[in-house]
Amino acid sequence: MSEENDKAFEILNQFEVVPLHPDLVPYVGENSLGAMIHHKLIISIMHHERLNKTVNAQYEFKKAKVDAAKAEKDWSLYVFLHERPYRLDAFSEISGQWNDPASFWQLVGSIWQDSENIYQNRGQWLKLWSSTIPNRSSVMDEEDQEALAALPETFKVYRGVSRAKAAQGLSWTLDYDKAVWFAKRAMRVVDSAGKPVVVEGAVQKSDVLAHFTGRNEDEIVILPQHVKDRKITKINYKKNSLG
C-alpha cells in the first residue's frame, strides 16, 4: 500500500498548482479523509490543491451545460448535471415551470430512484408525493404500473431501519429479506450505534403512490400514515458483520 501511495503522490506532484475557482472556494471543507469540496456541481473527496486545475475545468464545463439546459428547458439534464445530494434541490428550483404533468412525474421517479438520502430530505419528498398534480402514475414505467395493478387490494410491506423511530418513511418493500438487508446496511453506513429493526405493516393498494421493481428492491412508496397494523421485529446484528 505504501508503494501505491508513493506512486499516487508522484503522479499528483506532476500536476500544476493553480488557484481554485472562486465559486468553489466557499465549499472547501474537511472530512475524515482530509480536504474535500462539496458543491452542487462538483464533489471532490480527498481533494488536493494539485487537482484544482482539473476540478476548475470540470466545474466550468458543468456550469455551462447547466446554464444551457436551463435556457433550453431541458429539465432532466438540468437536474442530473447536479451532484446526487443536490438533485432534489435542483428539481425544486424549477418545479413551478412545468406544463406537462407526465414529464413532471417521470422526473420525480428518476430522481427518487437515483437518490441515496431520501430520509434526510423527508419533508421535501412528503410535499412532492402529496402533490395534487395529475398523472402521478407516470412516475412509474409501464412494467411497474402493471406490477402494481397485479398486487392484491391489501398486502404487507416491510421497512428495514437502524432505529424504530425511522419507521415513518415513505419507502417500503414487499420483500422481508430485502428489508433486513436495508436495516443492516443502515447500521454499517449511517448509524453504527443503532438497534436495527424491520417494521411490518399492511397497506391498501389504493393508497400506494408508486411501485418500483428495479434494483431488485420491490419498492412501495406510500405515505407513512397509510401503513397500518404495524409490527416491529428486532434484527440480530453483529458489528463489522457484512451480512
Name some characteristics of this structure.
single chain; 243 residues; alpha+beta; three-stranded antiparallel β-sheet; 8 helices; 9 strands
Strand content: 15-25%
Helix content: 25-40%
Give the number of DSSP strands: 9
What summary fits the major beta sheet? Answer: 3 strands, antiparallel
Overall outline:
flat
Low-confidence stretches: none
In whole angstroms, the N-to-C terminal distance is: 27 Å
The main sheet orders its strands as: 1-2-3
Secondary-structure element series: HEEEHHHHHHEEHEEEE
User: Structural class, from secondary structure content?
Assistant: alpha+beta
The number of helical elements comes to 8
Mean of all residue-level pLDDT scores = 89
Task: Indicate the radius of gyration in whole angstroms.
Answer: 21 Å
Task: Kindly describe this structure.
This protein has 243 residues and is of the alpha+beta class. It contains 8 helices and 9 strands. A hairpin with a 2-residue loop joins strand 1 (28-31) and strand 2 (34-38).
Strand and helix layout:
Elements: H1 2-12, E1 28-31, E2 34-38, E3 43-44, H2 52-72, H3 75-80, H4 87-94, H5 101-114, H6 122-129, H7 142-149, E4 154-161, E5 171-173, H8 176-189, E6 197-204, E7 210-212, E8 219-221, E9 228-234
Antiparallel strand pairs: 1-2, 2-3, 4-6, 5-8, 6-9, 7-8
